[in-house]
Design brief:
- The protein has about 625 residues and is of the alpha+beta class.
- Helix content is about 15%, strand content about 35%.
- A hairpin with a 5-residue loop joins strand 26 and strand 27.
- The chain is globular.
Length: about 625
């Protein structure tokens, strides 16, 4: 929405600023320039011809590249695709014949032929479009547009022909369309507005527009519908039990059954070309592992386990090999290929600079601690080889998210400097069952804040950590947790805090953020007109007077998730109460910090802040 307040890039402070500690040096073998030089490889797809498309997040662009699955020099497809956060971007889509690519860029769907050429925009018929899905003929394309405040599905083609509306009702948002192998049907997700915790699986006959609900239950989320190669089955992930398991159903609505009973979340999956197996990523306590599932029996076969995050699995057309993305606490994300017969693994991209490879990086320990009500809070603990006596507690964003065995360059950097680093999965985090995931419904800023405060108490039990040298730092919901922990803690467990694009007033932020984030908030808290007390209870803006420790606030002015006005409001309250703070905004940053020059500045300010307030001379 248009900002009601004119905001400009600024730096403000109240109190003496955190200055560079000339007596402290970067850890041996690491510096912020090296950390911010990494280019993230992500969002890949394997074509029927054996080509790979992927996105690389560079210093100023998130461009599309292609390469051979045998390994080759990458070919650049786009040259002006703006930076996009990896957690909020689309995967480019190969046409079934492997001759065309479709992807989103600048708010529209573009296509480009496999053999090269300038990307062509095909959605001029609307103000914006996203999420392209190819029809089996490699000519038709289903795209998602917004109309009447709902996401709807349109059918167009490679020439951008005037579209045909596939969905028009206003019962909810229509997402993730998947055409049947015979092109007669699509199956898609429906997010109903009358139950925001519900996601249905809908079958639509293209010729008639007739729709039937294949799966839909109150307050149950079903996602990722896909057709078996022969069109006999439709698969999907549903959280009907405590965990997200895989289900199968026939297109006529018969034969519904739960295929997996792992008691763990199925994160992603893909059918094998023969349809006899499914390649799945399963979440095991923050380690996302690969396994094969026999579609007839549900029997599982371990394929690749161990510490790390596998994602976006793909099958070769002949079923002989798979490709996937992998990262771990010691390895940044890259693309890999595995031969299924021999289990031979080949790394296809190499984003890890040699200078970084020479460092001894830390694999975090999995620990738990009890919160105020006895709830066990899982957490990841990085122990430095040589402690400086200080510690940082890092609550993740979301809140529907999970800290796991992923690449975290800041954790590695501060641990190398001697900081102990604890990342808790507070109540509301995913991966530990539906009850844990929904434990913060109607309770933002209360129980989850206590989980963070008790994380500080856990850090105090660690021998090398000094009780008065613990900080809290997070982004998005983690920034909100930081603000809550500093303003709602009578024990003052934290010596300072860093709030990146965090919130302090749930009511005003709900009113100013974009539609999808308003609805996201309502999933947890309901509508503010009906649950105003809950929104106010979760808003620490009125508790700024309780702050006793310094806080660093960082925010991008293009943020549509947590509006930059949220930090303006928080800083105004801190200034009014005479609190010590530093405040920096970035004119060209959305939610999160993406541009390398800004990321370097953010990391540098955080380092100065922690060094100044946590490490004595």
């Amino acid at each position: 929405m248009e900002n009601p307040i004119k905001l400009t890039e600024k730096y403000e402070r109240n109190g003496w600023p955190a200055l560079k500690r000339t007596d402290l040096k970067p850890p041996r073998g690491l510096d912020l320039s090296l950390l911010t030089s990494l280019e993230r490889i992500r969002s890949h797809m394997l074509s029927s011809q054996g080509d790979i498309v992927y996105i690389k997040d560079g210093e100023t662009l998130s461009d599309v590249f292609t390469m051979s699955s045998n390994g080759s020099w990458p070919a650049r497809v786009t040259t002006v695709r703006p930076l996009a956060a990896f957690w909020d971007d689309e995967i480019p889509q190969w046409s079934p014949d492997g001759e065309w690519l479709a992807f989103g860029m600048n708010g529209h769907v573009h296509i480009v032929p496999r053999d090269g050429g300038l990307p062509k925009k095909i959605t001029d018929f609307t103000t914006s479009a996203a999420a392209p899905r190819w029809m089996p003929d490699s000519n038709g394309l289903i795209v998602t547009v917004e109309r009447d405040d709902m996401d709807q599905l349109l059918l167009t083609d490679r020439d951008g022909a005037w579209p045909r509306a596939l969905t028009t009702d206003t019962i909810g948002d229509h997402w993730d369309p998947r055409p049947s192998p015979d092109s007669k049907f699509i199956v898609y997700n429906l997010r109903r507005v009358d139950d925001l915790n519900r996601l249905d699986i809908i079958l639509l006959e293209i010729a008639t527009g007739k729709q039937i609900t294949l799966y839909g239950k109150p307050s149950v989320r079903a996602i990722s519908p896909k057709w078996s190669p022969d069109g006999r089955w439709i698969s999907f992930i549903a959280q009907e039990t405590q965990h997200e398991e895989l289900y199968l159903i026939k297109p006529d609505g018969e034969g519904l059954h739960q295929l997996t009973k792992a008691g763990e979340d199925i994160f992603q999956y893909e059918w094998s070309p023969a349809g006899d197996q499914i390649l799945a990523v399963v979440n095991r306590g923050g380690s996302f592992e690969l396994m094969l599932i026999e579609t007839g029996s549900g029997t599982t076969i371990e394929l690749r386990s161990g510490v790390g995050i596998h994602s976006n699995p793909n099958w070769a057309k002949d079923g002989s090999f798979i490709t996937f993305e992998f990262e771990s606490p010691t390895l940044p994300p890259d693309l890999y290929r595995m031969e299924l017969a021999s289990k031979k693994l080949t790394q296809l991209t190499f984003s890890n600079p040699p200078a970084l490879q020479k460092n001894k990086l830390i694999v975090p320990e999995q620990v738990t601690y009890k919160s105020y009500d006895g709830l066990e809070i899982p957490a990841f603990l990085y122990r430095p080889e040589r402690s400086n006596g200080a510690a940082i507690l890092y609550p993740h964003g979301g809140p529907k998210d999970q800290y796991g065995f992923a690449w975290d360059e800041l954790a590695q950097y501060f641990t190398a400097k001697g900081y102990t680093y604890l990342a808790p999965n507070y109540r509301g985090s995913t991966g530990y069952g539906k009850d844990f995931e929904r434990a913060n419904y109607n309770d933002w800023g209360v129980g989850d804040t206590q989980d963070c405060l008790h994380g500080a108490k856990y850090l105090r039990t660690i021998k090398d950590v000094k009780p008065n040298r613990i900080a809290i730092s997070g982004g998005s919901y983690g920034g909100y947790m930081t603000i809550n922990a500093l303003s709602r803690d009578p024990e003052y467990l934290f010596a300072c805090g860093v709030a990146k694009y965090g919130d302090s007033n749930l009511v005003s932020s709900w009113a100013q953020c974009e539609k999808r984030l308003r609805i996201y908030t309502e999933i947890f808290l309901g509508h503010p007109s009906a649950n105003l007390e809950i929104y106010l209870k979760g808003s620490p803006i009125t508790d700024a007077k309780n702050i006793q420790k310094p806080v660093l606030i960082l925010h991008g002015l293009l943020d549509t998730v947590v509006p930059p006005e949220a930090s303006e409001e928080w800083v105004e309250a801190l200034r009014r109460e005479g609190k010590t703070f530093e405040y920096k905004t970035y004119a060209d940053e959305p939610h999160g910090f993406l541009r390398r020059e800004n990321l370097y500045d953010v990391y540098e300010r955080m380092e100065r802040f922690f060094d100044w307030y946590l490490v004595p001379s």
